[in-house]
Amino acid sequence: MSQFKHLHAVQKLRDLAAKPIDLRSVLAPERIESYLVDNELFTLLYGTERVDEPALDALFELAEETQALEKMAAMQSGAILNKIEGIESENRSVLHTAMRDVFQDRQTAKNARAASDGSLAELNKLKKFLSDNSDRFTDLIQIGIGGSDLGPRALCLALQPFHRKGKKIHFISNVDPDDASAVLDSVDLKRTLAVVVSKSGSTLETLTNEEFVRSRMKSLGLNPSEHFVAVTGEKSPMDDPARYLASFYMWDFVGGRYSATSMVGAVMLGFALGYEQLEQILRGAHAMDLHALTADPRKNLPLISALLGIWNRNFLGYPTVAIIPYSQALHRFPAHLQQLDMESNGKHIDKRGALVDFSTGPVIWGEPGTNGQHSFYQLIHQGTDIIPLEFIGFCQSQRQDDLDIHGTLSQEKLLANLFAQTIALAVGQASQNPNKNFSGNRPSRILLAKKLDPYTLGALLSYYEHKVAFQGFIWNINSFDQEGVQLGKVLAGKILDLFKEKRSGKKGDGFALGDCFLRLCADRSRCNHK
Ligand code: G6Q
């Protein structure tokens, strides 16, 4: 049996989960007002989760027994965390927090000072680069994939009203040529800066797309080395400053999906928003890093969110979580959280190398509300699976451009829908007509803030990073590697060899399964219909 199952708190939680509270009978204003916790920016409302005091006590005991806060402190101070005992594995510090511990109060990273010094040096380089070059360019294309795309893109799109006038940002991530082609058709390359982001400097999609854009530039008589910037690891195949207008660095101890606040996001965000607003994102993230590190467990927002997630996943047995921002600006944020959470905690062995015998990370998915209400909420309210929800809401609209229509503002309509959903899910509705019956007793929680600005967004990003890390600490899994993505890459390489062989007529090692798909594709290409 795994260590996790042996934990005293786990036994207790299992007993408690045999008879969890029923939200239909307990939900009342007093409960909503007492099951909440806040810090300077956010209020986490969790009265609509299926927890009571004994369950909460046992969850905090679980955090203590697994030393979740101690592990957070170890992470933020640069201890080696990215390691699995007894088998070949990564073996590194995990220091994304040092990327934003660059301001005067520098408290978190005593042992991680070198990392935050490195980050500060890159930020200073970036500040100078932006002031020397920003005027030359109207557009920026970020070329990168996975962690080099999702987080930075989500942040960029979330802060549109803060973008500088006359600056447009585009992204190319997919190796689908239609992605690059569509972006290239929409920009004036003479005034475009291309930022190629690849920590390894060897990612097929990114290197292909870089060449795609370079080639288009050359065909227009432009010199790519005056338009291209690199963000990569030191000594990676892309670390070749002669090919680039500038090169910025990131390090092994910052994982791709945790890298939005490193140079991976910073170059593009600095260009889009200006350096000062970029700094606000970093300051907000740093404030939440400190909160995760120092807040008492019962006041610690990401820890509480992690524990509620573990209650839902391991004890109530719910397999997925929907994260629904009631904010259009956050429309790509769930895509970032999908990667952050599922790549981190979708693991089948623990840190001792043993197969786990409990559920690890749930399936994470989401879309902004209210749009989701008009599509998949049917299943959430009346489907046969129970889907816990994490709502994100803001009291004020981001743009403050609102109108009283039929007696209420649009922002009020948005919030009314958010609060209505959490109540409807919890209390349901009895009806004689079974098709109109809502069973209720379905859990959700709300993370509420005043308004979405760069500082708050930085803190929100960090909140989720720490929620995911706390869950990994409690499950004792390695949340900072991603071996599960390797097999597909290797097989894609073999299939690419088949494509090459076909073109050159040379025979290679053969790969019957891959070959079969290529044959089917060739047949399809010969079909007459469009
Ligand atoms: C993230 C993953 C992965 C990575 C991409 C891009 O944690 O490691 O999504 O970010 O595969 O990798 P490169 O930045 O090395 O191109």
Proportion of residues in β-strands? 5-15%
- Number of continuous helical runs: 19
Number of strands: 13
The first-level CATH class of the largest domain is given as Alpha Beta
Instruction: Look at the structure and name the CATH superfamily of the largest domain.
Output: Glucose-6-phosphate isomerase like protein, domain 1
Secondary structure category: alpha/beta
CATH topology of the largest domain: Rossmann fold
Average residue-wise pLDDT? 95
Rg, Å, rounded: 24 Å
Bound molecules: glucose-6-phosphate
- Sheet having the most strands: 6 strands, mixed
When the domains are counted, the total is 3
Order of strands in the sheet with most strands: 1-2-13-10-8-9
Distance between the termini: 57 Å
In the CATH hierarchy, what is the architecture of the largest domain at level 2? 3-Layer(aba) Sandwich
Low-pLDDT parts are none
Tell the overall outline. globular
Portion in helices: 40-55%
Describe the structure.
This protein is an alpha/beta fold. It folds into three domains: about 5-65 and about 295-400 and about 405-480, Glucose-6-phosphate isomerase like protein, domain 1 (Rossmann fold), CATH 3.40.50.10490; about 95-280, Glucose-6-phosphate isomerase like protein, domain 1 (Rossmann fold), CATH 3.40.50.10490; about 485-525. It has helices at about 5, 10-15, 25, 30-35, 55-65, 70-75, 115-135, 150-160, 175-185, 205-220, 265-275, 275-295, 300-315, 335-345, 375-380, 410-425, 455-475, 485-505, 510-525; strands at about 35-40, 40-45, 140-145, 170, 190-200, 230-235, 245-250, 320-325, 365, 390-395, 405, 410, 445-450. The strands form three sheets. A six-stranded mixed beta sheet has the order 1-2-13-10-8-9, with helices on both faces. Helix 5 (about 55-65) packs across helix 13 (about 300-315) and helix 11 (about 265-275) crosses helix 12. The protein starts with a helix and ends with a helix. The site of glucose-6-phosphate (G6Q) has 14 residues, from loops.
